[in-house]
Amino acid sequence: MVELPRHLFWSALDHKFNLDARYDALAAYQSVLNNARSDDDLSRYLNPALLQDLWGDLILPARIRQAWEAAHPELATRASISAA
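Above: the chain's sequence. Below: its structure in token form.
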């Protein structure tokens, strides 16, 4: 379980996500990637292995996806595997 602060997830009263449940994990990671204000937000709330697992299914703005894939080419590879 992870509880996101309001600046990362403000659209519901409950800010808790069960990261063992894929739907919850996707919602939490999409929110963090879209709303992070600092590297600390990213390092505190994102797990690299889980991020790679979820990457192909995350719904993200193109600019965020492109920036992350440019910085972490393994994510682009992971996305193409998921799409196949």
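The two ends are 30 Å apart (CA to CA).
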